[in-house]
Design brief:
Nucleotidyltransferase, domain 5; alpha/beta; single chain; carbohydrate metabolism; kinase
């Protein structure tokens, strides 16, 4: 990922030989500008948060655009600060965002109901019925589950639905006018046929027949409601004048920039770690946490713990998606920062977070008898409709900062490792797991404990913290410079050939300690169920 030539960055930026990646994550919107060798030239970001409105997790579309504008403005400022030039164009760009969820629009292009994010777990009946109908696991957060649940509930907006998309698809549509979606993100809306890399025709027909019997259905076939599917490298349109004004109201960025297909954060995470070939996988840790493992063959049967989705090139992937990731760990870090301030020793958030993670390495391998549950929301893998974050210990447990920190990190990985066990049962081979996200920015801590949790080597590269924003910038470069070549080969030969990776093998003591901890963690899930019923 080093520059391909010695041209000054300012010249590269001024001439537009760059790529711009934007990703809308759960808590941050990030922008990343890369050069000809995929090196990071500048970054920008803005913070945002979901809201729990009428018992639904959502983001307002106003916040989408104000957040995007703030992140792009921050990127332009950072570019000028670093390189003395303010870019007016880039060679290509792309948009990534949280997968799944429900964005339903009417014929006039207006949003019919507030955005229902991946975090909502209100679609259990729909997901169960569709899984049985299709013979294909349909998770609670998939777009088709949300649509069918709205049909079952007789929601008034259903007959008005004209177009469905994901968050990345929505932003791309407003920027280009194109109602398209990358194949990886599309595979989280509706099941895909791996042979055609498009929506499964038989399942589409089965869905239309089923909703017609309900008597409260969309007026158009499902195929007509869904965005057109594109694979990595295909033409996905260009930035329009209206789109440029939405993205950058100052008028600095000019229209005409070509865009790659919009993708979900799972797909860009795979690209950001170079894990798009069979027997590779990656873990992304943020507000949610998920693992993506590229399959050599289809799974033998349906597993409720596993989504079957695709890479941005359309190859089959088993996905273990957990609704709850590192948010609770971050909340504890914030609390400890407040405590330090109260003692007269204010500290930067990153320093507190790093100290907490560092303490985890000093903890006992089994956590000293402590359990930590990070369930801010429901968790389908463990069958919980709602969550209640908690720390549990027995009278004989050893409550130290080190043990507390270790079990908080273990708690981030607990549900994920339960889902990964199913892959082991399927005989899925994994040579190496790549990890990315802010949790892995502190060297050697979360990486080491993740290796213990999954029993496989874990690699972290120097783009671990940039994550999907850098990944979608790479896909934008691929669309502009290498379309038609194999994505896995492009990543291996053009992007990661000189990459420096830090690989950690599972430590035997950590593995044994984590296994003992996970046994207690699994038994204690009944406490979560009781807490959700008792504490409203």
């Amino acid at each position: 990922m080093s520059p391909q030539n010695q041209t000054e960055p300012s010249e590269v930026i001024a001439s537009g030989r760059t790529a711009l990646g934007i990703e809308l994550g759960s808590t941050r919107i990030k922008a990343c500008l890369t050069g000809p060798g995929h090196e990071v030239l500048a970054t920008g970001s803005s913070d945002w948060e979901n809201q729990f409105v009428d018992r639904m997790w959502t983001y307002s579309l106003e916040d989408v655009w104000s957040g995007l504008q703030a992140a792009v403005a921050d990127l332009l400022d950072d570019t000028e600060r670093r390189h003395g030039v303010r870019p007016t164009t880039v060679g290509a760009m792309g948009v990534s965002a949280m997968m799944h969820g429900y964005l339903a629009f009417g014929g006039d292009g207006e949003l019919l109901v507030p955005f229902r994010t991946w975090r909502n777990t209100t679609t259990e009946r729909a997901a169960t019925e569709l899984t049985e109908l299709f013979g294909h696991n349909v998770p609670l957060r998939w777009s088709v589950a949300h649509l069918y649940q709205a049909v079952l509930d007789g929601e008034a907006h259903v007959p008005q639905v004209h177009f469905l998309t994901t968050l990345a698809g929505y932003v791309h549509w407003r920027l280009t006018g194109q109602q398209v979606l990358g194949v990886g993100d599309a595979s989280g809306m509706f099941p895909l046929d791996p042979a055609t890399r498009d929506y499964d025709a038989g399942m589409l027909a089965a869905f239309d027949e089923r909703v017609a019997r309900e008597g409260h259905a969309p007026t158009r076939p499902l195929q007509a409601l869904l965005p057109r599917v594109l694979v990595a490298g295909e033409d996905a349109g260009a930035l329009t004048a209206e789109g440029a004004a939405l993205l950058d109201p100052t008028g600095t960025l000019q229209p005409g920039i070509p865009l790659c297909p919009p993708e979900g954060d799972a797909g860009t995470g795979m690209v950001a770690t170079g894990a798009v070939a069979p027997r590779t996988g990656n873990v992304s840790a943020g507000t949610s946490i998920f693992a993506m493992v590229v399959l050599e063959r289809p799974l033998s049967r349906v597993h409720p713990e596993l989504d079957v989705v695709t890479t941005p090139a359309g190859d089959l992937v088993a996905m273990v998606h957990c609704n709850n990731g590192a948010s609770e760990l971050g909340a504890w870090a914030d609390l400890l920062r407040e405590f330090a301030t109260a003692l007269g020793h204010p500290a930067e958030p990153g320093d507190v977070y790093g100290a907490l993670l560092g303490a985890a390495l000093e903890g006992e391998a089994d956590g000293g008898g402590l359990l930590a549950y990070n369930y801010l929301s429901g968790e389908p893998i463990t069958g919980l409709a709602e969550g209640r974050p908690m720390v549990v210990r027995t009278p004989g447990s050893r409550l130290t900062l080190a043990n507390f920190a270790r079990t908080q990190v273990y708690g981030v990985f607990g549900t994920l490792s339960l889902g990964m066990r199913v892959l082991d049962e399927e005989g899925v081979a994994l040579d190496q797991m790549f990890a990315h996200g802010g949790l892995f920015k502190t060297a050697g801590v979360a990486q080491r404990l993740l290796a213990a949790a999954i029993g496989a080597p874990v690699a972290v590269g120097d783009t671990a913290a940039e994550g999907g924003a850098w990944g979608i910038a790479v896909l934008a470069s691929y669309r502009e410079n290498a379309a038609g070549s194999d994505l896995a080969e492009y990543l291996a030969e053009q992007v990661f050939a000189d990459a420096e990776l830090d690989v950690v093998e599972p430590d035997a003591d950590d593995v044994a300690g984590y296994a003992a901890w996970l046994e207690q963690y699994s038994a204690g899930l009944r406490i979560q169920q009781a807490a959700a019923e008792a504490v409203r």
